[in-house]
Design a protein that fits this description.
The chain has two domains: about 15-165, 3-Layer(aba) Sandwich (Rossmann fold), CATH 3.40.50; about 170-250, Helicase, Ruva Protein, domain 3, CATH 1.10.8. It is built from eleven helices and nine strands. The chain has helices at about 15-30, 45-50, 70-80, 95-100, 115-125, 155-160, 175-185, 195-205, 210-220, 235-240, 245-250; strands spanning about 35, 60-65, 80-85, 90-95, 105-110, 140-145, 160-165, 195, 230. Helix 5 links the parallel strand 5 (about 105-110) and strand 6. Helix 1 crosses helix 2 (about 45-50) and helix 7 (about 175-185) packs across helix 9. The radius of gyration is 22 Å and the shape is elongated. It starts with 14 loop residues before the first helix and ends in a 30-residue tail after the last helix.
């Protein structure tokens, strides 16, 4: 791990990124509930999970729940459990909140959680303050960006959260080369593949609406091009010429056969939150 890396999983020397990582680590150590805000693909989940993994030995597990995957009724059951009395032998199905007692609960995309469920969650968190450390719970949340604005979640829940913001990739272009090289090392561990300075300059001039996830997707596509160990703007140009849908995403014109691209590049793969800060 480089001396400027706060977490080994986080690649980048940007000051805002380092500050976010240190805030998350401190929040975990102090057992504070916190929310990681940032754009899709910027690595909110990775930051939260990496900070949690810094806990000492013997710490309980971190349970994860994606709030986009269920409707309001399903959210209540999966989060808080359900008491079944229809069967001859009544049963209690434990929810994620109960299972995470003594450990942590990570809610992804918490803005999709119904407000009624968020209010109940805030009430249970408030009640858990009086419990011992082994019975308490620490809540970690990720949500869409709302810098200098109220959180897009219930006020009772937002009031208990420390806000941590992950910068978008366009805010830290100095990290693009390191991110690209780290990805290429992992994608091709037995072959040394580099990016030319011209390609890095092209990447740095692009807005990257999909953030790190989009950059990784672009590099993955470029690896399928003939490259002889060096990815260059020409590889990017060749990809454009053969892919009509990708060519249509360009904001300007591109002359086939030329290695010069007049505008930025947006890969076909849609950005997903499964991406990570690298």
């Amino acid at each position: 791990m480089k001396e400027w890396q706060v977490l080994p999983e986080i690649v980048g020397c940007n000051a805002m990124l380092r500050m976010a990582a240190m805030q998350a680590i401190d929040a975990v150590e102090l057992e504070r509930h916190f929310v990681v805000e940032g754009e899709p693909g910027s690595g909110r989940r990775l930051l939260a999970r990496s900070a949690w993994c810094r806990r000492g030995p013997g710490a309980r597990s971190l349970f994860t729940l994606d709030c986009r995957m269920f409707q309001s009724d399903g959210a209540e059951m999966l989060l808080f459990g359900k008491h079944s009395s229809r069967d001859p032998h009544p049963a209690i199905h434990s929810g994620k909140f109960n299972l995470a007692m003594g450990g942590g609960l990570l809610l992804l995309h918490a803005e999709f959680l119904p407000l009624k469920t968020q209010s109940r969650l805030a009430q249970l968190l408030d009640e858990s303050r009086s419990r011992s450390r082994k019975e308490g719970i620490q809540l970690l949340i990720t949500c869409s960006p709302s810098l200098h604005a109220p959180l897009p979640i219930h006020p009772d829940l937002a009031g208990q959260l420390l806000r941590i913001r992950v910068p978008a990739l366009r805010e830290r272009p100095e990290d693009i080369r390191a991110i690209s090289e780290a990805f290429l090392r992992n994608a091709s561990p037995f072959e040394r593949i580099r990016c030319s300075q011209a390609l890095i300059d092209r990447f740095c001039s692009y807005d990257w609406p999909g953030n790190v996830t989009e950059l990784r997707s672009t590099l993955r596509r470029l690896l399928l091009e003939p490259h002889d160990g060096l990815l260059d703007v020409r590889n990017l140009a060749n990809l454009m010429c053969r892919d009509e849908s990708c060519f249509a995403m360009l904001q300007g014109a591109f002359v086939p056969g030329s290695a010069q691209i007049e505008t930025g590049f947006i890969p076909l793969d849609s950005p997903a939150e499964g991406g990570s800060v690298q």
